[in-house]
Amino acid sequence: MKIAILGALGFLGRELSHSLARQGHEVTGFVLHQPPLQPEGFLCRPISSLKGREISPDDDFDVVINLAARRSTKSNPLSEAIVREFTFDIPKDFILRASGAGTLVLNASTYIQNFEGVDGRTVDSYGAAKQDLTRFLMDESEILGFKTLDLYLFTIYGHGDRPSHLVPSLISAAKKREGISLSPGHQLMNLMHVEDVVRNFTKAIFTKDQFSYRRHFIWQEHYFTVRSLVSSIESIAHVNIDCLWGEKPYAGHEMFEPWKIPMSQIPSFESQISLEQGLKKLWSEE
Predict the structure, then answer these.
(1) I need a surface site. Which of 85, 219, 232, 252 has the fewest CB within 10 A?
(2) pLDDT by residue (tens digit) across 189-209?
(3) 3-state SS class at 190
(4) What is the pTM of this model?
(5) In this structure, what are the phi and psi dihedrals at residue 259, rounded to the nearest 5 degrees?
(6) Measuring CA to CA, which residue among 129, 148, 130 is closest to residue 138?
């Protein structure tokens, strides 16, 4: 298959692109600017080179995957305009240019874009932009002739994740015997190893069902607190992590009781790496 991926050099994107290329698919990653070095195994091009099918019939992709987004954080604050550009405007333009009648679009959404699982109840500019992209795909898939699988993720972890994210930060604190500032830690979370996410995305590209838009979630319904996660890492590492509980406030979109999930789990869902296995793997790799 010919597969186009926006966000191919990101955490999930690299894993997915390499995996699909190893399986023999013709993978093209799209980025804002031409990278100085091409990644091994697949081609990477700037979005500006993608002119649209009516102009460039060579770009006739079977599958188009959007993994792109940017979120404002305290460590890396971004304006609402930039968040919207990278989370809605650029992905929308990419999907319109790369897709045509018969194309399968896989869009990576996030569960927390809708607070308490309620459609449209967004809490920040990132969630609002993600939700607007979902609405665009719902409205336009049938009109424009492509079909969309909107795949909702909770939290992904694994080798190559950003050092500032929770799991890498906890493992780093454990290895360096350093203190780490955390929220009170009673919020519920869910973790899925990046290799399992890739496994389920790969299955999704072979869907043969006829539809215009469909959405599914990709995670196991097993939730635990941040405090429980810390205990798991401490047990695996045989060290105590110096957690400064409550030094950081809650962000405001945390889940303290399981939210409703207004969609079904992806068919043939598969998870091969348990949390314990994934954490042990990360501990030995870092």
Answers:
(1) 252
(2) 999 999 999 999 999 999 988
(3) coil
(4) 0.94
(5) -80, 160
(6) 148
> Smallest Cα–Cα separation from 153: which of 65, 238, 27, 22?
65
Whole-Å CA distances, 34 to 9, 39, 46, 59, 67? 11, 11, 5, 17, 18
> Which CATH number goes with the domain that contains 144?
3.40.50.720
β strands within the chain, DSSP E: 2-6, 26-31, 43-46, 63-66, 104-110, 147-153, 155-157, 179-182, 188-189, 191-193, 213-217, 224-225, 242-245, 264-265
Cα separation, 22 vs 166, whole angstroms: 30
> Does residue 233 lie in a domain region?
no
Residue 210 lies in a domain: yes
166, 228 contact by CB (below 8 A): no
Beta carbons of 153 and 110 less than 8 angstroms apart: yes
Provide the strand spans (E) within 183-228.
188-189, 191-193, 213-217, 224-225
User: Which residue in this structure is represented by tokens 């191919």?
Assistant: 8
What is the chain's Cα-based Rg? 19
Interval 203-253: pLDDT, tens: 999 998 899 999 999 999 999 999 999 999 999 999 999 999 999 999 888
- CB atoms < 10 A from the CB of 250, how many? 13
Domain that residue 17 falls in: 2-161+191-221+260-272
The domain total for the chain is: 1
Residue 72 lies inside a defined structural domain of this protein: yes
